[in-house]
Amino acid sequence: MLQNHRYITHKNKKIEYILKSFFLLHPRNVDLSLGRIKMLLEKLNNPHKKIKNIIHIAGTNGKGSIATILYYLQKSQGKTVNIYRSPHLVSFNERIHIKNKEVSNQYLLDVLDYVKDVNDKQPITFFEIITAATFYMFYQNAADFNILEVGLGGRFDATNIIEKNLVSIISTIGIDHKEFLGNTIKTITNEKVGIIKNKSCVISSKQTISAQKIIQKKSEEMECKLYQYNESWKIKNNTFYNDAVEINLEKISLAGKHQHINVSCALMACLKVKKLNINLKSIDKVLPKIYWQGRLEKININLLPHYNNFELWVDVAHNKLGFSVLVEWIKKKKINDFYIITALGVKKDYINIFKVIKKANPKIIFILKGKNFNSQNPEKIKKIADKLKMYSIISEDIYEALNIIKREKNISDTKKVIITGSIGLVGYFLSKI
User: Fold this and answer.
1) Domain boundaries of the chain, sorted by first residue
2) What's the longest Cα–Cα distance across the chain?
3) What angle do CA 53, 54, 59 make, to 5 degrees?
4) CATH ID of 297-432, from 3.40.50.10170, 3.90.190.20, 3.40.710.10, 3.40.50.300
5) What is the pLDDT along the chain (433 residues), one digit of tens a residue?
6) Minimal CB count within 10 Å: which of 92, 221, 345, 373?
7) Contacts (Cβ under 8 Å, ≥6 apart) of 305
8) For residue 330, which of 391, 257, 382, 389 has the smallest C-alpha distance?
9) Do 357 and 390 touch, CB atoms closer than 8 A?
10) CATH label, 5-289, candidates 3.40.640.10, 3.40.1190.10, 3.40.50.2020, 3.10.290.10
């Protein structure tokens, strides 16, 4: 979630100007409600009420991956899909795809300009006005399916202005955005289940027992058919099992065992929602083609000619749950004698994040000053690293850290590096290479 207009950039300066201007509309006191977006959508003639076949996805980690996997699965069947995800990594346009294509600069500019005029300087949050603009685009470009990823929470998220959907998918729930959602799994889950619509279908990913119970209770209250991971379906030896259906997941291009759980959620939606049905024989061809940038992504070293003896990965882990997944992957891959380059958002739980990182035993952690997004004070983070007896260095930028690593003596000739901790950090690095 972008926290400051200073960090909004766009190659098209007119789009950048409009996006930055939206921050000036931010209410002085933000109450979690749907009142502001409701007023704007009414002025736009309620485009969200005219959109059909909505797939709504909430959760803490994995929302974007599930949305992306579903997007690829449905496109492979010749379907047209509109998709809304956030935040973006490199270009704002990544957030919105219209009928299987990333939104064009001209159309984005036209709609943002129009919605800005219609809003008429009324107080509204950045995410709310962008969501309203997205609904307007989706209405103007009717697709077979519309995939919405929740920005924050669920109950009062701007995307939750919709009145019905085909399916609600709840990805794995952990603790994040405590200042808005609470500091327990129970309170956070109560917010996330707010997307569940009456008499619809609910798919729930791997959850804690407390989250599972709340999702089950809400589904019963809303008279929904609920499918839960490890109850309705399971994954064993890289294979998805549901009733008589068995699907090998090994060919998925996305790294990490957690992506097997994410793809299984998408598959359950396709199996249990009639309109989303797919040809199961085509899945083997689709899984290797799924691309979701910045998720345990290995960087082509040809893009970094001065570091040709490096193995470099980027990952957008930015909370305790995300780092737990990253550490599990590091151990599974048996990556030893490696380096982490990180910067964490200003409101992130850096103490518990570093306790998780310690389990992977990095050789050095480089803590960046994070000039390109709203980052936590590196001195505060270093104090925690010192307390945990983790060797850390505060660094000006990524390249200063890479140059220090280049001079380091290693057991092996290959220098293994992971850049992680923030979507802003990973996005900035990818934009530079």
Assistant:
1) 5-289, 297-432
2) 64
3) 155
4) 3.90.190.20
5) 344 566 788 999 999 999 999 999 998 776 778 999 999 999 999 999 999 999 999 999 999 999 999 999 999 999 999 999 999 999 999 999 999 999 999 999 999 999 999 999 999 999 999 999 999 999 999 999 999 999 988 999 999 999 999 999 999 998 755 555 666 999 999 999 999 999 999 999 999 999 999 999 999 999 999 999 999 999 999 999 999 999 999 999 999 889 999 999 999 999 999 999 999 999 999 999 999 899 999 999 989 999 989 999 999 999 998 999 999 999 999 999 999 999 998 888 999 999 999 999 999 999 998 776 778 899 999 999 999 999 999 999 999 999 999 998 877 789 999 999 999 899 999 998 8
6) 221
7) none
8) 257
9) yes
10) 3.40.1190.10
Global pTM reads: 0.93
